[in-house]
Amino acid sequence: MKCPYCGFQDSKVVDSRHSEDGLSIRRRRECLDCQRRFTTYETVESLPVIVVKRDSSREAFDRNKILNGMVRACEKRPVPMAELERLTLEIEQILQNSLDREIKSERIGELVMERLKPLDEVAYVRFASVYRQFKDINSFMQELNKILEEK
After folding, report:
1. Domain count, the chain
2. Does one domain contain both 38 and 63?
């Protein structure tokens, strides 16, 4: 780390603490040349994930859209909010850990449905009906039959 006072390239860490928000580490450093102290912050670099929508438009990934979609699907269902937040975080981590910087919205929808199905079948069907855009009652019944066959 370059000293902000004398420009020397070497310093030692004197003290490290987590910041109040828990998202970074505050480090007190001492320059090995001039012995002056300065503070640096270390944070995790997260690359932006872009969502490619069905109409080929692109927008920045927004975890709240996933959470809101699951909340709507789970309305009046006995699903704890903490569980939906955990699933949202899990999906977000999968997307961040993938090597792709552009993710199709279909992939996100599939990840949501994979997690809703074992959690609450009614919520799964609600989400799937919006996500898969069922055109008529027959396509809706086909999805319900798939669930019944798996039991």
Report:
1. 2
2. no
Return the structure tokens found at 105.
């919205």
Q: How many CA atoms lie within 13 A of 86 on its CB side?
A: 8
Q: Do 72 and 16 share a structural domain? A: no
């799964």: which residue's tokens? 124
CB 26 within 8 A of CB 16: yes
Asked, for residue 6, whether it belongs to a domain, the answer is: no
How does 43-63 read in b/e, with b if 16+ C-beta sit within 10 Å?
Answer: eeeeeebebbeeeeeeeebee
How does the average pLDDT of the chain come out, rounded?
88
Is it the case that residue 21 has pLDDT exceeding 70?
A: no
Q: Across the chain, which distance is largest between two alpha carbons, in Å? A: 77
Same domain (yes/no): 73, 89: yes
- Give CA–CA dist 69/79, Å, rounded: 14
Under the banding of pLDDT at 50, 70 and 90, the label for residue 151 is low
Quick one: average pLDDT of 55-67? 93
How many angstroms separate the CA atoms of 50 and 97, rounded? 13
Same domain (yes/no): 35, 76? no
